[in-house]
Amino acid sequence: MGGRGAEWLLERMPELLGAADDPSAFAPRHRVLAVARHRRPGLRLTRTGLVLESLIPSVLEQKVTTGEAYRAWRLLVRAYGEPAPGPAPEGMYVMPEARTWALIPSWEWHRAGVDDKRASTILRAVRVAGRLEETAAMAPEAAQARLEVVPGIGPWTSAETVQRSHGAADAVTVGGSASAGDRGVGARGGPGRGRRGDAAAAGAVRRAAASGCPADPAERPHAGAAGTTDAAREHRRVVNRPLRQRAPL
Length: 249
Description:
The chain has helices spanning 6-16, 31-39, 51-60, 66-80, 98-102, 106-111, 116-127, 129-133, 140-147, 155-165, 179-187, 201-207, 230-239; strands at residues 82-83, 93-94. By secondary structure, it is mostly helical.
């Protein structure tokens, strides 16, 4: 294995393959969960240890369809990221650095289909990227608490993030537009699949939480003020402010 990042990848490989997860700790108490576990014996949850790489796609998923979020991620990463260090498949890109996200102009967010609310949330997050990345060493609950200090990041987004960055099986995704339907179908014993399917028994645990949870108001999209969008204002604040002057978390 060669190329930049090879040593990092080899060091992280065990956790990326689920070595930090303990499937024996999962004791399903619902028939649907037991069936999910039976269908995926030995499945382990991955842990990336990369917080922003999990957070930004989660913010892009707020209040839109999966296809819209994937499209926005693809356009922004290909436009502002870097080709993956080789050997790598053609067309594979690495996510932009925090500073690069901060410099994306407001019209490019709109071109990618990202509204002012989500763009502003991402811009606020990258301003304190270092503090957020520190949460990779925290317990998932503490990590979520710090993430939610950033305006626009609520329980849904923080849970989506730590599920990936921390391999947090007990981080419950609530308030999503599809979550309640997934849970309802699952509880009736139907074939419903979540956005990631029932590939993980822990994913079923998340969707077995009580349905009907209201969406977090902090994560609802809203129109920007007339004349100047939230994203444009946030972009100017980020560009005109040195990275070392970051708001405390």
